[in-house]
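User: I'm writing a tutorial on reading structure tokens. Could you give me a worked example: one chain, its sequence, then its tokens, then a sentence or two explaining what the tokens reveal?
Assistant: Sure. Here is the example chain.
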Amino acid sequence: MAQCVQSVQEFVQDSFVPMVAVLCSDEAERLTSKNKLNFAELLRPFCRLTSEGHLRDPNNQLLVVKNLRICVTKVVPSTAPPLLGAALSPGQRHHLDQVVLSCQPQEGAVSTAVAAGDYDLSFNDEALKCSAPWFSSWKDALTEACASKHFSASTPWFEVYRENFLQSMPASDHEFLNHYLACLLVVSSGEAAPVEQFVKLSQEQHRIQHSGDFTKPKWFIPNTLKYYVLLHDVGQGDERRAEAVYEDMKQRYGPQGCYLLKINSLVAEQEEQIHDLWTHYLRSQDQADDNVGPAVSSSVDKSGSTTQEPSADTGGRLEQDSASASREADITAGGHGACLTLSDHDRIRQFVQEFTFRGLLPHIEKNIRQLNDQLVSRKGLSRSLFTATKKWFGGGKAPEKSVSEPKSTGGLLYPPEAPELQIRKMADLCFLVQHYELAYSCYHTAKKDFLSDQAMLYAAGALEMAAVSAFLQGGAVRPYPAHYMDTAIQTYRDVCRNVVLAERCALLSAEILKSQAKYSEAAALLIKMTSEDSDLRSALMLEQAAHCFINMRTRMLRKFAFHMILAGHRFSKAGQKRHALRCYCQAMQVYKGRSWSLAEDHINFTVGRQSFTLGRPEKAAQAFKQILTNDSRQTAAQQGAFLREYLYVYKTVISRSGVRLPQLPLPCIHGAATRVYFGHERRLAEGEKQAATHVSLDQEYDAEQAAMWCKLEEQLVAAANRGVVPANFQPSQCYLNSQTDNLRHPLAVVEEPVVVEVVFRNPLKVPLALSRLSLVWKFTRDTHAAAAAEDAGEELVSNQDTLEQESRQTDDVLTTETILDFHLAPEETKMARLRVLPHRTGCLSITGVVYDLAAASPAETPDDDDGNKKAPDQTFAVRQSREIPHAAPLTGLLKAETIIVSGKQDLKIRGPRLNHTKEDKMFVRYGPDRRLEPIVTPPMPLMEVFFLQFPTALLCGEIRKAYVEFCNVSGVSLCGLRVASTHPEFFTFGNPSAGTPLTPLSPASAENFSAYKTLAAAPGSGAACETLVSADDFGPTSDVVDVPVGGTLEPGHSVQLPLWLRGPDQEGVHEINFLFYYESPDKRSKISHRVVRHSVFICASRSLSVQASAHASAIPPQQGQDQDGGSTLVFIDVENINTSDAGVREFHIVQVSSGSQHWSLSKCINPAKDKDCKVSSKERAKLCFRAAPCKARRASLDRAEMFTFADVNLSDERIVSSATPCGDFFFRCRRTSKACRADACSSGSRTPSGGRSLGEDLVRVVNECDRLDLNIIVIWKAYVVEDSKQLILEGQLHVALQAVGEEATSLAPKQDTQEMVLLKFKSDPPPPAVPPSTQLSRLIKSNLRYSETYAHDFAHDSVCVVPVCLVLSNCCRTDVDITVDLRHKTTSSEWSECACSFTWVGQTRYRLALCPRQTRHLELQACFLMPGVYNINTHAVCAAPCLDGHHRDDANAQTEVAQHGAGPALIVITDSSQ
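And here are its predicted structure tokens:
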């Protein structure tokens, strides 16, 4: 329940005050009329006494009366019969309606707020602002109220209603509280015979009270107090005569029964400014006078004085209306009390006190004593009823809480002399003078008597006042009997059918319960008083019940909101639109943002309609906006109605405000999803040409891809700047979104469009039609940044002015593209790409979008099969030309007419959250997002790239020739064309210096044209053709390739270059990315370079698997063909692993080539010399080649990076492997594999920085011994029939042999998953570098030279001695210590028998050292005792390299490693004697 201005005790006391009547003579009325007042109105501001009064009760106990107020009214007798029933008259209802309607929240009042859990509610004069969800600052009102214990929101309209309702109740016979206790007889001192006038007025009062002709007013007791007032005009009257008359009056009526009141002391010459005290009282009184019904009605002023007027007929009503109109003019004009001074105010105040203390209170005390004596004498009770009731009821049991159904409710009427009424009359007198204890006793006694007589109306009144008296006693005398009030309300409403008395009882009880913090009981009581007979009363009760729910210890917010909505509905039915609007807006604070979507829609819709009805279309538009922008669960038909009403209201707002482009709420724009593209969109494929993919808005942003492109661009920039990336390098950004770096201004180019992709979302279930959709921009005509432009005061150019004036915009600065029609289906998210074309340099800022919004009427929307409305294809109509008056009701919409509203929406993009400094982490701060603020730079070159005959599927290692075309489509020449790729081994532009094969005149003539440079050769020759080339001839070692376009590409020119492609070595789908880089000749441009991206997917299928291995030849160098260090055997296994259905059945190995700095293939060892090497599906072939050190190496020691290419052709043609493209792909693949090996080495264990160990030196020496570094190139051809045409596929596979004894393959190694290892907090020391024994066993080649058959005459000589030569060859490039032991016995069981009866004679152990590539012969002698077959290879050769030139001694001989032998050496010994 809302907070009241008065306390509960003051409110209850002021509800029941002593009533005093006034009868004035005509002359007295004339004197008071000088102040535009009658006598009763003159006294009204002074009716509350500021001093205490005293009287004695029947027990002679002194009683103090505090803060007493009396009600003084003019007597207007009435003969109309009293109204039967409980309802208020129409005039009274209209009066209460006007009272509530006129009392609205004050403008600018401080709002009251309450915090409950996570709810923050605010209440003030402008509830629509504070509670509506679109009002951003409503939380500012919570600073002071959150600390308060109870919620206190003032509702003055309820207080005014309550006060007027209580004081407008007519006098009733069952109670005497509003009966007159006294009558003031007022006569002017200027009368000819004042005393006679007093006699006439006294007789008139007696006639009105006792004649029985008048039903109204009612008098408290028969002997009414008459108080005689002589009114003297100080300005015009004779003061001596007035004093004389007053002395006569004191003789007649006594000093306590009369008074001389002097007024109008203000002289005309005085100019005393005195505040008007009467306007506040007279305004409400005048409203009551103007709205009385046909029966007697009471209108109440603030002081509580009541004026009763009789009903009037039609003529009387017209006269009354005219009088009221003139009186309203007087009230508006003011000037009340114009002839009164402050002294007169004091005299009037003194008069009221004298009358009350000397006349009224003694009169009441006298009547209380008389009534007490009468009751005691009649009932035979003790001397004082006070003591008796105290004895009887002081500690008695509580009264009954309910009443039984009476036999008769309205037929029983007590006579005026009835003892029951005398008790009630005495109780009312005690209550009026604040003697609540005696009043409670009397009410309790009367209640029992009334109940015993089944006089339910009287009993209910006694129960009501007994409860009020018990409450007003204060202290802990007795608790407030709430059940008395409940019983009284039930009796009034259900038994007596008197809703008015029940409402009065409920108002009193609710206020009392609220003061005791019993908000739940108060709310239940108020809700019970709601009914269909009075919407205003129900609305006020529901609102107060809602305030009770929010004041509970545990605030019931949802009940508060629900009852506020009910109150708003009843206010609306009662015609109280502003109060209804306020209730709905306060309820919205509870429902908003908490998934109560349907409740929010209902509230917003009602708020919108009420606001529009009240002439607030702006607020109505805001309310309808919430329905449309929130995710609503309404049906499509309902949302369509919402949309049409919103457009109607919004058009009204625009017409009133004069704003041409207001902010529109529909459709929703996802600002963070806005994407910007700078430049022309790429051209699609033209015939056989395939355009570079580059960047487009159709592509999804990938952070990994962006990082990859940035890395490629860094490589290109570094290549263009001598290997150094500039410090101010920024990657090119022609495509911006929420994930890109938008902290700096992007760069656009003159005459290149800026495309902005805006994401629109239709939150409704009905279609939206947008037209004339375009961008709103601002442009600064200079070349500096936007901030510098603002500081310099540059003039901004914007298209918003031309759009608002609907004039044709000029295109000299920017050309803006307009989308004529843009349709959004229900709940559709759709993107619109809007373009602007800058024509001048400067700073561009795109601020928003502008468009026309329309909604199709239901008549234009056809039904679908389910009966729902379908969105039409075109929802546009001719723009509405007529003006819609702002006061037109919403129900007056022409539904057959399409409403179009022009407006805009701002593109608001919030930057990334800052998290760099401490302040950024403590507070929520966001950086700038400048994706819509580009700087337009001068013209730059623009290149387009096209590809011809570019394949999408290749075999692994397949060579295919394609063509690439570079076109300069700008007006500026370009230079410095380069390209970088993620797969540099995939392509090559060729090397003219290394020999490029002939290029066909056109790509169409390239069918079956070999991609290699070929020469005629004799088939099956087996000898290799060697060519010495430099690696520098095939470009730099980096992954950046210069495109040979001949320097500068002029504007409008294009160049077409061949491009050789090689299929990846690993099967699968490969994404290959190209980044083309080019520059402008003008180095002063803000854009240093531009790039073109191209991504292609290549599907690689299996072709051949090549495995190669190298083994050292066992033939000594002297017997072989190579005299410079020995030869090596190379074995190549070729397997057809192609399993696709591409028509490839067999592969032909046409040539095997090698490329190396140290070794080369010298000859093919082919047993089948005349057979072609073919490998069908799942077949395998093995080839054997002899490799020898390069002969040309010695002659080219002074040249770096010289490679020897050796070609061994297996067909009738020779492919020049050192020319393009074979040589290009050789070097590219070699560089890639070398980088992979370097990465593998860098990720392995490293030696500590303390120096290399002995083991590492040994490993290095051994590796040098076995190092081969021989790259094998296997060139193949395959014949495929496709579309009745035979195609020849060519390809080459690479195998890198690094060392002797190792195997290598052409297939890319599979990456094994890394096993889980235990986490170690302390790293283990690296293991010592120990070379493998297989490598140390190949340091020395040993061979025995002897005669294989030897004849000896054993009969002549029993011992046969055969000379044997042991040849030792050093295969290393370092000195080797060798130990030869002839006493060694073979461990082979196979040749153990052949070695029997055989021994070496002479020196059996040798120690010697061999220099690099040195050969030495040892002469040995073998001794045989009998003929047979012997294996003389029984010696052991151990060797160890000499490190740092130090030879090993015998002590270190154990570190030598046994060397591999050449196999068994068999000798046949025959006996020549046989």
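What the tokens reveal: The CA atoms of residues 1205 and 1218 lie 6 Å apart. The chain has a mean pLDDT of 78.
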